[in-house]
């Protein structure tokens, strides 16, 4: 469209007030009521300007944006009043408009009075279509409007030019999270962590979050459990000229359910990976011209050093290793002949040099590619290209081992299921919410002799088989599945039919394990293997024991109690021959041998 046509079309819109308004409901999570409505403007239905994006873009090009936006704003006020909608009106405004005369307190108060709308019921929703040039002026204008009862909301946090800066300066009463972060929230741990962080910031800033784009019950459940105050989206209601005054019964039922949601696992709470900085040894360096015998003396003085970096103008150019230098200088006459020579004659000219920010996982790959000698000799660590110190292969190996141990607590490397830390977090959430759930402990019977006979690879296959069956038989929106370690698994059931699911798991495991055994062992129901005393002992086929503990609001109050009870129930199940389920029907404290659990232990430690 050319500029002349745009002006004609826009003048027609302005002259005849050809703007319609749709209202999308915003629901309060606390009482499942409609808190207010966002006004969404539309241009003439028979025009290319019907879309709000096209309308406002055309207004910008034609130099009529102020007039068109004011018309949209007053149309929202008029339609809101005429439809007698209750609650708050969220009206979109570009931040810069607050500095214009129309939005000054006295002028805006008169406009609101003309439409019969109390200032307390108007929320100015600041959009981020333009960069903000003067935050101080904008903050002052916002404060002046607050003094007459208006409140400010920030739209689409996560998009635009300066979301967090605008939040900090404007101190809005409401912050609307962009739908990008809500869509698929129940399956994306990164989005979960973002929303959780924004909710924490909002609580500290005395602001309330509005989650936009909620379209599924699963997304609604997640934002509810995160403590988000308000939601908006197609699940609550589509934009309509005359919107519903109440949420649908399905939405009300979803909010009223006692179960808590299952957060997407692992990445959102996994610790940050360490880098080469954690391996840094601040060691002295030498120049290429340093006599070799001085380098030897330095190594003898610092017995912990395996090598010395050779540095020129702050840049590493080589490395002299202890074994190489000692080997040379223990030979007859070598010290007399070469002691005064520069160490550059004996240095490794292409040592491994890494930046201090290199991740441990990446560093280990570099060491492997460089060769085993690098593991022995160590490596040089720099920062911005300048020498900082040395790193040893031993320290690298220790760091990798520690990482593997920590990572296994967050996600089991064999099944990739959540480990002990996420299991603990979800158990604590269930108990804090007073939710009714069942803690079911799954453990393989006769697993060690199976490993002895068939080997660890087949043993891993059994564990993976069980993990796959458990994943398929629990409801991911209600039930939390975790891998404690080894052949132990946990499901925290909120499904009402949990017992039937357990029975299906037992039946499927007994049927599907057959593919992992030799035919003769299946026919005989087991196999012989040597015990620790060297005697041949018959062992039954691998079976599955489940210990289940129903947890009610009046039962267990601490995670350690649940862990201990589930482990005891599992031991009871293992007393039965073959695959079995034992359900602990007694409440906390009723077990005959009940005793306090340690302050903090993993599930595997109480098994």
From TrEMBL:
SMART domains: EAL, GGDEF. The keyword Nucleus does not apply. Residues 435-586 form the GGDEF domain. Residues 3-253 form the EAL domain. Residues 569-607 are annotated as: Disordered. Keywords: CBS domain. CDD domains: CBS_pair_GGDEF_EAL, EAL, GGDEF. Residues 569-587 have a biased composition (Basic and acidic residues). GO terms for molecular function: cyclic-guanylate-specific phosphodiesterase activity. PANTHER family: CYCLIC DI-GMP PHOSPHODIESTERASE PDEF, SIGNALING PROTEIN. This is Diguanylate cyclase/phosphodiesterase. It comes from Sulfuritortus calidifontis. The lineage of its organism: Bacteria, Pseudomonadati, Pseudomonadota, Betaproteobacteria, Nitrosomonadales.
């Amino acid at each position: 469209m050319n500029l002349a046509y745009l002006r004609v079309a826009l003048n027609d819109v302005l002259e005849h007030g050809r703007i319609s308004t749709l209202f999308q409901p915003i629901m309060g999570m606390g009482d499942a009521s409609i808190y207010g409505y966002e006004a969404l403007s539309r241009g003439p239905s028979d025009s290319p300007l019907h879309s709000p994006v096209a309308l406002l873009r055309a207004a910008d090009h034609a130099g009529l944006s102020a007039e068109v936006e004011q018309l949209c704003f007053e149309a929202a006020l008029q339609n809101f009043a005429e439809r007698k909608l209750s609650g708050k009106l969220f009206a979109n405004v570009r931040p810069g408009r607050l500095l214009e005369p129309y939005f000054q307190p006295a002028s805006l108060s008169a406009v609101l009075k003309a439409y019969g709308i109390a200032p307390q019921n108007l929320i100015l929703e600041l959009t981020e279509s333009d960069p903000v040039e003067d935050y101080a002026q904008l903050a002052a204008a916002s404060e002046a409007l607050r003094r007459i009862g208006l409140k400010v909301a920030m739209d689409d946090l996560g998009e635009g030019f300066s979301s967090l800066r605008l939040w900090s300066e404007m101190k809005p009463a409401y912050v609307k999270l962009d739908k990008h972060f809500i869509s698929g929230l129940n399956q994306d741990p990164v989005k979960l962590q973002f929303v959780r962080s924004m909710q924490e910031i909002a609580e500290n800033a005395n602001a309330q979050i509005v989650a936009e784009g909620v379209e599924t019950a699963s997304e609604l459940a997640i934002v509810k459990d995160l403590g988000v105050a308000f939601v908006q989206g197609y699940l609550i209601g589509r934009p309509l000229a005359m919107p519903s005054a109440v949420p649908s019964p399905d939405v009300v039922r979803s909010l009223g359910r006692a179960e808590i949601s299952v957060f997407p696992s692992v990445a959102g709470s996994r610790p940050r990976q360490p880098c080469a900085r954690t391996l840094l040894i601040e060691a002295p360096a030498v120049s290429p011209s340093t006599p070799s015998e001085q380098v030897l003396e330095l190594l003898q003085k610092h017995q912990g050093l395996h090598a010395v970096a050779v540095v020129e103008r702050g840049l590493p150019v080589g490395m002299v290793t202890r074994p190489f230098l000692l080997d040379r200088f223990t030979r007859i006459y070598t010290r007399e002949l070469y002691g005064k020579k520069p160490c550059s004659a004996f240095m490794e000219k292409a040592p491994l040099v890494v930046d201090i920010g290199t991740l441990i996982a990446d560093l280990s790959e570099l060491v492997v590619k460089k060769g085993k000698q690098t593991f022995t000799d160590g490596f040089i660590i720099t920062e911005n290209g300048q020498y900082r110190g040395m790193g040893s292969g031993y320290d690298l190996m220790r760091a990798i081992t520690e990482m593997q141990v920590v990572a296994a607590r967050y996600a089991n490397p064999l099944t990739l299921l959540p480990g002990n830390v996420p299991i603990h977090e979800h158990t604590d959430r269930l108990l804090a919410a007073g939710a009714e759930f069942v803690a079911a402990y799954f453990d393989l019977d006769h697993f060690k002799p199976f490993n002895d006979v068939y080997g660890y690879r087949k043993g891993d296959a059994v564990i993976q088989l069980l993990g796959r069956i458990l994943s398929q038989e629990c409801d991911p929106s209600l039930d939390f599945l975790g891998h404690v370690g080894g052949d132990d698994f946990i499901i925290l059931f909120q499904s009402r039919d949990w017992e039937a699911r357990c029975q299906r798991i037992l039946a499927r495991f007994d049927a599907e394990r057959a593919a992992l055994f030799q035919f003769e062992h299946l026919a005989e129901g087991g196999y012989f293997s040597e015990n620790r005393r060297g005697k041949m002992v018959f062992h039954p086929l691998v079976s599955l024991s489940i210990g289940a503990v129903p947890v009610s609001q009046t039962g267990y109050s601490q995670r350690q109690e649940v862990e201990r009870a589930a482990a005891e129930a599992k031991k009871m199940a293992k007393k039965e021959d073959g695959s079995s389920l034992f359900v602990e029907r007694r409440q906390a404290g009723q077990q005959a041998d009940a005793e306090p659990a340690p302050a903090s232990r993993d599930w595997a430690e109480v098994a």
